[in-house]
Amino acid sequence: MEITTLKDIAQQLGISISTVSKALKGYPDVSKATRDRVLLMARKLNYTPNQLAVNLRTKQTKTIGVIIPTTVHHFFSKVIDGIIEEAEKKGYLVIILQSNEKLFLEKLHVNLLLDKRVDGILISLSNTTTEYVHLKKIASRNIPLVLFDKVAPSVACSSVAIDDKKAAYEAVVHLIEKGYKKIAHFRAGLNAQNSIDRFEGYKKALKDHTIPFDPSLVYMCANNTDFEDGYANAQLLIKEHPDVDAVFSITDLVAIGVIKYFNEQKIQIPAQVAVVGFSNWFMSTVISPTLSTIEQPSYDMGVIATEILLNEIEGIQKKEVITHQNIILPTTFIERESS
Predict the structure, then answer these.
(1) CB contact set of 103 (below 8 Å; sequence gap of 6+)
(2) N or C: which end of the chain has fewer CB within 10 A?
(3) Residues 328, 329, 335, 339: is their CA dihedral positive or negative?
(4) Each residue's pLDDT tens digit, 127-175
(5) Which CATH architecture has domain 164-295?
């Protein structure tokens, strides 16, 4: 099927191509009668604008790129919902890529998005991201970058995150106030900022309540903080510290692995060992016992990060000076049966 062009419409109506173009764009110097004739013929010939030509003229692709560590986690699925809904309001398409918590994939995806000439990029950094040359490359192309959730304070760009240290502190204080004293922490890697901050919040809560910090109660998650990490670490924890009375996990997914192991071993939750997660994904309310956790405003994070990105894209188009924003969203502790 041949593609209808402006020339085809002009020939059918016996008018100039420029008049057709102006009519389709709603220019005021084209009469209503002419505009109606052009629109009617455009529909009759199934005309659609040449998007490539539009992109070349406006120097925009109306596309943004999103790089996330994983699509499995409920948190990121809700963030994506917010991103897509907000982007669609402004007529933007969204390209979603997954780094699988690998720095080399994150770099490849950044290059891919730059090659696709996206108008802006949203990234939640991988747990293995230790250097930021690829992020600086985005800035050097004058393309807006907004980091969300897992951010890097040293990178000059806007960001949307939570106060992970404060949220973790509140979770551990909850356990202490419930009478738990020997509290283990299942954390992510040493590089991810949110893992660092949640670990620091855990330690601060212990210190403020005169509970000595025991590094042997801190367990690393080897498999990107998933269900298997929680299960394996719970098994090791009970072997090494049979008198442990609580676990604070880096994510709900890890905590659910902990609960599964404890349930299999007939370890009563929370009578013997309490469990607290982080994120409040949907499984937290259906597992038995239901999981106490930190509520992250995931959907709002996606919406706000996208709003900032699209505003910066518009600002660059207008040649305005861009002022970076670093937004911290509130969290809420949700007490359920596991604590």
Answers:
(1) 126, 128, 129, 130, 131
(2) N
(3) negative
(4) 888 899 999 999 889 999 999 998 988 899 999 999 999 999 999 999 9
(5) 3-Layer(aba) Sandwich (3.40)
